[in-house]
Amino acid sequence: MQISAKTDYAIRALLNLAAHEPELVKVDTIVREQGLPRKFVEAILGELRRAQIVRSQRGADGGYALARPASEITLGSVIRAVDGPLAEVRGLRPNETEYTGVAEHLPEVWVAVRSSLRRVLDEVTLSQVLSGKLPAHIKKLVQEPDAWLPR
After folding, report:
1. Which segments of 12-97 are extended strands (E)?
2. 83 burial level (CB within 10 Å; 0-12, 13-18, 19+)
3. How far apart are CA 9 and CA 17, in angstroms?
4. In contact, 107 and 98? CB cutoff 8 Å
5. Whole-angstrom distance between the N-terminal and C-terminal Cα of the chain?
6. pLDDT greater than 90 at residue 109
7. What are phi and psi of 2, to 5 degrees?
8. N or C: which end of the chain has fewer CB within 10 A?
9. Tens of pLDDT along 33-71?
């Protein structure tokens, strides 16, 4: 899985909002504290607002805040809001793929990949990332001997 800059920036911006809850946070604060490009962050926050993950308030005292508690916002929901489905194969969802011959069982692998992504991304919330209190099965994955090794 390739995690796009858009997803990375969206999650970092949301973590910034979660850290300042319940205060409204200005875009300049997010940009400064996370070292992100302003125009990109503004566009991402617009998408997150349309997805009802953040709310905004205009005016001198305005800014952005989470639309619901950080404990209710999963990383998977953020990825879907800014980048679409967690797993796609040539623009299709894994369960929509169909092959014949030697590749006939490949859709099962694609579905398993999506399932494994869901087991991580749909079970980790912003508040867990912020606090470092990740679910036990996530910590176990991180502690596997080759987890941090590139391949």
Report:
1. 54-57, 63-66
2. middle
3. 12
4. yes
5. 13
6. yes
7. -100, 125
8. C
9. 999 999 999 999 999 999 999 999 998 889 999 999 999
Full-prediction pTM beyond 0.85?
yes
Neighbours of 10 (CB within 10 A): 27
Other Cβ atoms less than 10 A from the Cβ of 97: the count is 17
C-alpha–C-alpha distance, residues 44 and 23, integer Å: 19
**Span 106-123, average pLDDT:** 96
pLDDT at 151 over 90: no
Total length of the chain: 151
C-alpha 7, offset from chain centre: 6
Report how far residue 76's alpha carbon sits from residue 22's, in angstroms, rounded to the nearest whole number. 22
DSSP 82-122: HH--S--BTTB-GGG----GGGTTHHHHHHHHHHHHHHHHT
Buried b (16+ CB within 10 A) or exposed e, 15-36: bbbbebeeebbebebbbeeeeb
Cβ burial of 118 (10 Å; 0-12, 13-18, 19+) is middle
Residue 85, exposed/middle/buried by CB under 10 A (0-12, 13-18, 19+)? middle
